[in-house]
Amino acid sequence: MKTSARLKASLAALTALALAWPALSAPAANAAPKKPAKPARATTVVVLTFDDGDASNVTAARMLQRHGMRGTFYVNSGTIGDEGKLTWRQLAALAKAGHEIGGHTVDHARLDELLPDEQRAQICDDRRALMKRGHRVTTFAYPFGAVDADAERTARQCGYNAARTTYGLRHWGCRTCPAAETLPPADRWELRAPSSVLDSTPVRHLKQQVLDAEKAGGGLVPIIFHLICDGCGQYSTTPERLQEFLGWLEKRRSRGTVVRTMDQVVRGKVRPLPEE
Ligand SMILES: [Zn+2]
């Protein structure tokens, strides 16, 4: 018994060694091909969201791609092609590059001030317009983060799988808020986030949000950007700041922190739109 236990122990040690250093263990000639090594288990999932479809989001998308990341772009279908906004062609290019295109109402309506049928026009018609252009539209963001029970119900009826707010997670304005949304999310119709990134937001605040989530055992951290440009308004982030954050974020992968699109986090198929 004792010998057998010792043998088992050495076998276990050998297996552990082989797993730890796959390069050292030459496979037997007839062994099945090895699966590629799995990356570290993801515990913190960061979703980089860009709201309102500003034309400068093309810059952001390229920066993300250079870091092997993909973002979620919440656009207003009614303003696409307007001056300073993304065009349909640019939107198609974003989707082709692997980014997610999500809905954000037709023209950035404050949903909690609308009647249910007005909400329905804002949310369903927006999703319909994006889907007509061939986009896979599964997640939504409430403009201004303004949501009520009717808006949640309408987002669900319009065929979305989840909807993001702009509040509820820890940031410089709420140190007692939880550091991360749960995975799976506690309420997929009210996905929490730290408040929007502003031109006054230092990169260290963004880093801290991710570090706080890691420290709290992981979860979902959506980060809300708008314009990516220098000195172009309160809701802007300079390309330099975004670059610094992305470079830092990429290195957190070794800590199990990854970047995903909201669609990848929420999963689920593309649900149909209701009848017009
Ligand atoms: Zn917005």
Describe this structure in words.
This protein has helices spanning 2-20, 57-66, 88-96, 116-132, 149-157, 203-215, 239-251, 262-266; strands at 44-51, 72-75, 100-103, 139-141, 162-168, 191-193, 219-225, 227-228, 236-237, 257-259. With 276 residues, it is α/β, with parallel strands linked by helices. It has a single domain (44-266), classed as Glycoside hydrolase/deacetylase (TIM Barrel), CATH 3.20.20.370. Strands 1, 2, 3, 7 and 10 form a five-stranded parallel sheet that branches. It has a three-stranded parallel sheet with strand order 4-5-6. α4 packs parallel to α5 (149-157) and α6 (203-215) runs parallel beside α7. The structure holds zinc ion (ZN). The site of zinc ion (ZN) has 5 residues, from loops. InterPro entries: Glyco_hydro/deAcase_b/a-brl, NODB_dom, Polysacch_Deacetylase. Its main location: secreted. It is found in: Secreted.
Put the structure in a nutshell.
The protein is of the alpha/beta class. The protein has helices at residues 2-20, 57-66, 88-96, 116-132, 149-157, 203-215, 239-251, 262-266, and strands at residues 44-51, 72-75, 100-103, 139-141, 162-168, 191-193, 219-225, 227-228, 236-237, 257-259. Helix content is 34%, strand content 16%.
